[in-house]
């Protein structure tokens, strides 16, 4: 075959891979062998049919040197950035980080994560938000939104951070940090693409009501690249409960590959371990705040005062969501963010076991929708998704408990002084939209 022809074919293959989404997923034999040790029926069912369940996962092994400096080794199972999954609430993590970064960039000491915010409306679909009865002072703030987004995955909190940042700024900032295949296009309320390009006027005020900073309504003029089509399922229900017999189109929805999700969490927990451009410009106070609310339990929190029975300790800790006990092992804290929607369950976690001096990261997504119909609320979260994620978490955790380390990690930088629930007469918060 002539050299010119071979060159042309190589270029053609690259173009096809780019435009059609074709690529080869990565799987390490180490994980395949490790998973064979867990013969739980649900776990093995998902592993055997990993393609059907669109399973992807990254296990990040962390080793320390004599100076306690960490190094990271990733093991992959079916990881493919071109295989779409719905990121759902996982995108609340980057928006929380970008919100803190934006506040810091304003360089206005009186405008910080605890400063009162008020949202007005200036376009169709937009709503006002001037008060928040779940906060201690009765008003919204970035700090309160982050708490709610992390503790129980509150959707309104995400939408308000989206409005503070603006669609264009969100995507430009993430792309500048190297997360090029990530796309944030919408709030978590029903809106048109035009409405999602527009964000509300916002003001920050002090305790007397004095204006500190006003942010005008904004419009994103940047174009999105929607050339890679993402369609899933065999049918879906519309908002009017009509069944449409065709795959659901995610092409213009939010997108965040699993590796990006893992890297964003690693950038928070171990900022010096990622390239400088991937880090978020945060203060020491920001990191302390994030570590607390990424790992604090809803039942430990006073504002918001969540129903501890409904929002139990492992409520948003998928890898430790034991259906019987709802508690984590003694000494274990999980710093993580989850998302679940359209049959997808996703979690990125940094696990710290202070009793046994164990640490690692685990990131995974799984799809549990056997009938292929979306928006019918007949996903197998309870029967397959939750048990699988728990078994996956236990497989890695039990392996880590036995894994030999040259140097035990010193985890004191992740020890947090958590809140204690006050015994007051306030009503608990139930039935959050998440």
What would you say this structure looks like, in words?
The protein has 434 residues and is α+β, with helices and mostly antiparallel strands. It has eleven helices and 15 strands. The strands form five sheets. The chain has a five-stranded antiparallel beta sheet, with helices on both faces. The protein has a three-stranded antiparallel beta sheet with strand order 3-5-6, with helices on one face. The longest helix has 22 residues.
SSE string, helix = H, strand = E? HHHEEHEHHHHEEEEEEEEHHEEEEH
Task: Please summarize the sheet with the most strands.
Answer: 5 strands, antiparallel
As a whole number of angstroms, the C-alpha radius of gyration is: 22 Å
Number of discrete domains: 1
Helical proportion? 25-40%
State the strand order across the main sheet. 2-1-14-13-12
Query: Could you give the count of β-strands?
Result: 15
CATH class: Alpha Beta
- Return the average pLDDT rounded to an integer: 94
According to CATH, the fold-level topology is Beta-lactamase
What structural category characterises the helix and strand content? Answer: alpha+beta
The parts where pLDDT drops under 50 for at least 5 residues are 1-22
The rounded distance between the terminal residues' Cα atoms is 58 Å
In the CATH hierarchy, what is the superfamily? DD-peptidase/beta-lactamase superfamily
Specify the CATH architecture: 3-Layer(aba) Sandwich
Count of individual helical segments: 11
